[in-house]
Amino acid sequence: MLSSNEAAALHPAPPVTESKIARLRVLAVHANPKIRESVASSLHTPDDVFAALARDPDDGVRSCIARNESTPCDVLRSLADDRSERVRGFLALNFFVPADVMESLAGDDSAVVRGLVKWKSSLARA
Predict the structure, then answer these.
(1) What is the pLDDT of residue 107?
(2) pLDDT(124) > 80
(3) Is residue 34 within 8 Å of 13, Cβ to Cβ?
(4) What's this model's pTM, rounded to 2 decimal places?
(5) Which of 37, 36, 101 is nearest to 75 (CA)?
(6) 31 has pLDDT over 90
(7) What is the pLDDT of residues 60-103, one digit of tens each?
(8) Cβ(89)–Cβ(113) below 8 Å
(9) C-alpha torsion sign, points 8, 10, 16, 22
């Protein structure tokens, strides 16, 4: 059985090209929120597109931004007061969220969000 590193070496991801970035920009404004979610989930989405999608009206899109480990810290920070519990919950689970945001989420109105912050904190202590 192959390790994950060995499997990755056998099947490298295609290079990120300017045309791929251009496609992400086009798809980020698509009418279908599922397509925008795909862009929000990409590790190669440009920072300005992340920022725009963080203001998307669809909470599914914003949730993908909140859980994406490539999302810039300032964009993650902008989601700390999102109206959606789902978005704030995914934000609480992202290991790249700044400490000040985690402190804010620890006092969230939602028991679910507070519970996710507590659970993630317990992982760090383990």
Answers:
(1) 97
(2) no
(3) no
(4) 0.88
(5) 101
(6) yes
(7) 999 999 999 999 999 999 999 999 999 999 999 999 999 999 99
(8) yes
(9) negative
The residue type of 125 is R
Q: How many CA atoms lie within 13 A of 16 on its CB side?
A: 8
Query: CB–CB of 72/52 below 8 Å?
Result: no
Q: How far apart are the first and last CA of the chain?
A: 30
Amino acid at 30: H
Q: Which ranges of the chain does DSSP label H, i.e. alpha helix?
A: 4-10, 18-27, 33-41, 47-53, 59-67, 73-78, 85-93, 99-106, 111-125
d(CA 107, CA 109): 7
Place of tokens 């597109």: 49
Other Cβ atoms less than 10 A from the Cβ of 119: the count is 11
